[in-house]
Design a protein that fits this description.
Strand content: 15-25%
Family: Belongs to the chondroitin N-acetylgalactosaminyltransferase family.
Shape: globular
Number of strands: 34
Catalytic activity: an N-acetyl-beta-D-glucosaminyl derivative + UDP-N-acetyl-alpha-D-galactosamine = an N-acetyl-beta-D-galactosaminyl-(1->4)-N-acetyl-beta-D-glucosaminyl derivative + UDP + H(+)
Subcellular location: Golgi apparatus, Golgi stack membrane
Keywords: Golgi apparatus, Membrane, Signal-anchor, Transferase, Transmembrane, Transmembrane helix
GO molecular function: N-acetyl-beta-glucosaminyl-derivative 4-beta-N-acetylgalactosaminyltransferase activity
Radius of gyration: 33 Å
Distance between the termini: 34 Å
Length: 753
């Protein structure tokens, strides 16, 4: 027998895609054995890793061949050492290759070179297979010996390790070889994977490494002021789950590129022509938002075939004001060229009815066609196809469009002639600021748009005003090195709140980080984000009273689990990596365990590199609300932060500081919006979407969570989901301080897998 490891729920067809799985190769879904190297589970979206030893029955030169659907690789060592593995045969590298069962000659790569083996030795092998959701899944290896050409012979295979008594978390025996690992993609500022700008190096990523300017030194820079935002819904009688309607997004500067441009083929909510986001007439999906595609089709397809088999002219209205102001007058296209007459010859076709007299094309129709070419429809205006009934009115409408039925019939049998193209045609274009068109309503329904962007002029004005106040107290002591991050919580009735994250250069040459909330009171010229600061008008900056974040607050990550060994181990490893990277000791991992049988979680925590942890074993069926509350009850410091967490999350290095910055005791809780990855996607190749309505991850001070009653353990027992929205309702309703609200900013580079 040989060891068989199964990795389920993973899309893709290539072995490279399997190696990107975070759990590969140590934490498979299933570990079992097989009696021969020919496997067909009849399943979808999985990967297999089969390994063990081959015992040749005789000395000789052996050939190995592999067949599979989809890709596969057969590796064989020169001896029993896994470190000496070599790739001997394979089916494909791109994921597009596959074979039928037993088809060993489809690709040259399927058959190995002659390999000398000796009877008294054993040789470590590894067979890797990837299958998607199509085709007949199978993988098999055939062996022949050169002494008997063409004869398929048997060799003995045996397991490397008996895993029958091991738990899922026991992985020390699993070989980690060159066949099972892939070089990890590195983040690059020049060429991010798949063109995902969000993965470019960003100063926000390493800002936690810059020493923090002591808040004491900032006292007196700005005056204190009462902060009572107008969006507070204190005491408002919310219906169940109505709190979602009171969530508002924040604005950020500079651009963090959380807009998922690489996913906009599926969801183009940035563009106003998308029918889902505008209550307009139906949009002709063939054209989409691409003007080049439109003009090409317009030139080549002046006529279209309707589903009833006739040809009819498209009706198009509107202009292109959103992208093109006007066509330059000196480069107008010439009059449409009419196709020449061609004789019709259908010797084998059905007998034609006598033709009616052709109706001539009206001159004004030619002018109208020129107008369509010169002024194609805008992104805002839909392109329509006129609906025609089955009755006799169709013919009249047909003729009224300027065509006769017979004339149009001829066009289908003629060669297609393009209108003359004016290659020197130019146009004028206005800058297109799509961010100015965005709103909470759109973004909370659009799952690829990312953070709202703060206008640069507004951001610079705020920073300039603050630095002026700072230099008034400390003349020539600080200079602005870099604007790392600015977040705006708009309140156009009373004034907006800003989070400033600035890198300063002290006169001594030391770099310091400044992270502070400020409040800008509304004035007549600063009441709207559309208005700019009037000439000579000084912004009224102040410190929102008692609105301070604690940079040393302990953050408790609470996770309830049951039989999730591979994800628990992944979470522990991720938190260890955060600790190694940041050196931050002020966080605690709390795991409440519903009698997991696949790993000893307490032992894993004890052997980990974590600075703090707590473990609580619970009994009974898994209940998320009860498990979270049990973890909350372990916390004795009311002035520490509770972060209600989940498995399947990948955190960026500075995430703990991000939680601290966005939790203010008595004032603000933090619900990051994470990216849910599609099947087969990874944090470095992030195909997916923003989970804009998910509130399962929540950071809040222990004192504030206790004041609203903690988790609802009475209603949410045996049912899953909804407990996060219910907690949101109570958080917004509880008190005027807590209703200052959820921090709805999208937390870049946080992924839900």
């Amino acid at each position: 027998m040989a060891n068989l490891h199964v990795f389920e729920d993973w899309c893709g067809t290539s072995i490279a895609q399997l190696r990107k799985n975070l759990h590969y190769p140590l934490y498979p879904h299933n570990r079992t054995t097989v009696k021969k190297l020919a496997v067909s589970p009849s399943w979808t979206n999985y990967g297999l890793r089969i390994f063990g030893y081959i015992h040749p029955y005789t000395d000789g030169d052996f050939l190995f061949a592999v067949a599979s659907d989809d890709n596969s690789e057969f590796w064989l060592s020169d001896d029993e050492n896994p470190d000496n593995l070599k790739l001997r045969a394979y089916v494909g590298k791109t994921g597009r290759e596959w074979t039928a069962p037993g088809e060993y000659g489809k690709y040259a790569s399927q058959i190995s070179d002659l390999i000398p083996l000796q009877k008294n030795n054993k040789y470590f092998f590894e067979l890797i297979h990837k299958q998607n959701d199509k085709g007949t899944d199978h993988v098999e290896v055939a062996v022949s010996v050169s002494a008997v050409p063409g004869l398929i012979v048997c060799v003995c295979v045996c397991v490397r390790t008996d895993e029958s008594s091991l738990k899922a978390a026991d992985v020390n025996h699993i070989p980690q070889t060159i066949a099972s690992h892939v070089t990890r993609l590195q983040r690059s500022s020049q060429t991010p994977p798949l063109g995902v700008d969000m993965l470019r190096a960003d100063p926000r990523d390493s800002f936690h490494q810059v020493p923090l300017l002591d808040r004491v030194r900032l006292q007196g820079v700005l005056p204190d002021c009462i902060y009572n935002p107008s969006y507070s819904i204190k005491g408002y009688p919310l219906m169940r789950y109505q709190g979602l309607q009171f969530v508002h997004l924040m604005y950020v500067y500079p651009n963090d590129y959380t807009r998922l441009t690489h996913m906009e083929n599926d969801n183009k909510c940035f563009y106003r022509g998308d029918p889902y986001y505008l209550e307009r007439n139906k949009v002709l999906q063939d054209y989409g938002d691409d003007f080049d595609d439109y003009t090409m089709k317009r030139r080549r397809n002046l006529f279209s075939v309707q589903k009833h088999g006739r040809i009819r002219k498209k009706r198009e209205d509107g202009d292109i004001n959103n992208r093109f102001q006007q066509m330059d007058q000196d480069n107008q296209p010439k009059e449409i060229q009419k196709p020449p007459e061609e004789p019709q010859n259908h010797p084998e076709g059905p007998k034609q009815q006598p033709r009616k007299k052709k109706k001539r094309r009206r001159p004004e129709q030619n002018q109208q066609d020129q107008h369509y070419l010169q002024n194609p429809p805008s992104e805002d205006n839909a392109i329509h196809i006129e609906e025609v009934g089955e009755g006799g009115e169709e013919d009249d409408a047909w003729v009224n469009q300027g065509f006769s039925e017979d004339e149009d019939y001829e066009l289908t049998n003629r060669a297609v002639y393009d209108v003359e193209v004016k290659w020197c045609q130019t146009f004028q274009a206005k800058p297109l600021d799509l961010h100015a068109l965005r709103s909470d309503w759109i973004d909370l329904k659009c799952n690829v748009s990312g953070n709202l962007l703060l206008e640069e002029s507004e951001a610079l004005s705020i920073v300039e005003a603050f630095m002026k106040k700072l230099n008034q107290k400390y003349p020539r002591q600080f200079s602005l090195e870099h604007i790392v991050n600015i977040e705006k919580k708009p309140d156009y009735s009373r004034g907006s709140r800003y989070l400033l994250e600035l890198e300063l250069l002290e006169a001594s040459g030391r770099h310091l980080s400044l992270v502070q909330y400020i409040y800008v009171k509304r004035t007549e010229v600063w009441g709207s984000h559309k208005k700019q600061k009037a000439q000579g008008e000084e912004l009224k900056l102040c410190n929102p009273y008692s609105f301070y974040w604690n940079p040393t607050a302990i953050v408790h990550f609470i996770i309830p689990v049951k039989n999730q060994a591979r994800w628990v181990q992944q979470f522990i490893s991720d938190m260890e990596e955060i600790y190694r990277t940041t050196g931050d000791q002020n966080f605690n991992v709390i795991i409440t365990d519903y009698e997991s049988s696949d790993m000893n979680i307490e032992e894993a925590l004890q052997s980990s590199y974590l600075p703090r942890y707590q473990y609580l074993r619970l009994s009974g069926n898994f209940e998320r609300s009860a498990g979270l509350q049990a973890g909350i009850d372990l916390i004795t410091d009311d002035h520490s932060i509770v972060f209600l967490c989940d498995l399947h999350i990948h955190f960026p290095p500075g995430f703990i500081d991000t939680v601290r910055k966005h939790c203010v005791e008595g004032h603000m809780a933090f619900a990051p919006i994470v990216m849910r990855l599609n099947c087969g996607a990874t944090p470095l190749e992030p195909d997916g979407y923003w989970e804009v309505n998910g509130f399962g991850l929540l950071g809040i001070y222990k004192s504030d969570l206790d004041s609203i009653g903690g988790m609802n353990t009475k209603e949410f027992t045996d049912r899953w989901g909804g407990e996060d929205w219910e907690l949101l309702d109570r958080t917004l309703f509880a008190s005027p301080l807590l209703s200052n609200g959820y921090h709805g900013t999208l937390n870049f580079r946080t992924f839900w897998m």
